[in-house]
Structure formats: C-alpha cells, structure tokens
Amino acid sequence: MKIPYTANPPPTTTDEEASILQKVQDRRGASGLLPLDLALLHSFPVADGWNAFLGAIRTRTSLPVDIREIAICRVATLNEAWFEWKHHAPILAESGFSDAMMEMVKSATTPTDAELTALFDRKQAAVFRYTEAMTKTVKVPDAIFAEMKELFSEKEIVEITATAAAYNCVSRFLVALDVGEMNR
Asked: Record's superkingdom (predicted)?
C-alpha cells in the first residue's frame, strides 16, 4: 500500500470513533478487518460513510447475487482492481457462473453480443453491457438503457446503477492506494 495501514484494530480517541470502529467490525464479522478497512480507518468519518453505503449496496438491495456480482466484478476487471476481483469473483462463481462465464467477466476485451448472449441470459448480458458503459464512458447509450428498462423495474435499475457506481468508487480507491498490494 502506498501509505501504511492503520493498526488492527486502530486506536480510537473518542466514543464516536469507537462506535464507528465497532460498526465496521460488526459488518465484517468473523472475517475481521480487511486491508480496505485498515486504509479507510485513517479517517473515521470516511470509514463510517463508506461502511453504511457499501453495506447497503451489498446486503440491502433486492438484486439477485449474480446480477449484483456481475456489476461488481466487471467494474473490478475494467479498472484492474484485483483486490476487488479477489473478494467478489468467488461470490459470482458460487452464484452458478461457469468457468467460461467467469473468463468473459474477467476479460479485458469487450465481447461481441453473440459471445455475450451465448453464455449469459438476457438480464445478465444487459447488466454486463450497462456496467461496461457506466465504467468506460459514464454515459449509457439509449439502446443499452432501453434494454435495462425492458428487463428491470425502476427500483432494480437504481440498485444496479448504484452498485456499478459504488464499485467504481471502491476500485479507484483500491487501485490509487494499492490496497492489498495487488496493483503494482
């Protein structure tokens, strides 16, 4: 990492910091604090907001696991955030993704529509395309958005968009600071 991680656990100087640390530890559970947490906890207010926001994205949306993790893993690949990939690819694989599907998500190249639809169902392919557009150009072409509207409710579109946007933020933080020492 480009700056040292905090101690594990980091020292707290106020009740508010102790409360924030406890919330982060509670969210992580038995796995304990991750290198990402030990980077974020340099700033307790940032760690608190991050924990609440990403906790909601990961555990409180209505999205099926495969849809959520396609967005997260495709963002990780496109931004070369290998720490993110390492933590989310197993979740995507456990959702029923074959080796060929995982390879496509991890590929640095954009598959053709034929390649994508040969492996993914319509919803998965739409989320793949939508996430790729959001990550590469930010602006989503009308045709891609029209497909999203055909396949997903407004609530689901908001949740998919928030997931891709949130993990673009996560990946940029991870790569910029080389969290997990996977981006050298």
From this structure: Eukaryota
Overall pTM > 0.90: yes
* Contact predicate 42/6, CB 8 Å: yes
Tokens 């696991």 identify what position? 65
Distance set, CA 48 to CA 28, 37, 74, 95, 133 (Å):
13, 10, 26, 29, 29
Closest by alpha carbon to 160, among 120, 133, 142? 133
> 54 and 89: one domain?
no
Q: Which domain does 41 fall in, by range?
A: 15-59
Please give the pLDDT value at position 183: 72
pLDDT in tens, 75-108: 999 999 999 999 999 999 999 999 999 999 999 9
C-alpha–C-alpha distance, residues 45 and 20, integer Å: 8
Same domain assignment for residues 37 and 115: no
d(CA 164, CA 130): 9
Domain count, the chain: 2
Q: How confident is the model at residue 175 (pLDDT cuts 50, 70, 90)?
A: very high
